[in-house]
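Subject: for your reference before the review

Hello V.,

The reviewers asked for a structural picture of the protein, and I figured it would be easier to keep everything in one thread rather than splitting it across files. Below is the amino acid sequence we used in the manuscript, unchanged from the supplementary table.
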Amino acid sequence: MKTTLGFVGLGIMGTPMAMRLLNSGQSLSIYNRTKEKGAPLISAGAHWCDSPKSVAGASEIVFSMVSNSEALREISLGVEGILGGLRKGSIHVDMSTVSPAITEQLAREYDREGSAFLHSPVLGSVPQATDGSLLLFVGGNDQAFRRAEPALKLLGSRIWRLAKSQQASHA
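And here is what came back from the structure prediction:
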């Protein structure tokens, strides 16, 4: 798998997850509100972007891990959001714990624009994010899931597949 990847949200969970993707040999573009949090990844070879939109423009698959539904809405649909930068056929995989309503809305909006939104909340904490043994619940478009699956397997040791993004949020 040689796919251009992106990661938005480099907090406690996002940083080790992004590092796993980068250490797998993938090209990785990153963004966080505070650039300092990206320093370890930049030192390891990640490419810094100045917005979620820029990450999306440089990536075939963008992962995100943010604190809540409002943060997800902003990084996805805001003026400099992921959706505005995604090319047709690209994928946004959000791994945050957020409401089913926002994931359902994002799935509709992304589909309308010719890209895909998958929601994949995780079970686990920093040790599992570091060693790639998170448990993943992945909901959304099956074709997008199959394309993202190799990268998802770098992050999680077990994947439960669900048909709709909001089902993953409920799980």
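For the response letter, the relevant points are probably these. The mean pLDDT is 97. The longest helix spans residues 142-155.

Happy to draft the paragraph if you're swamped.

O.
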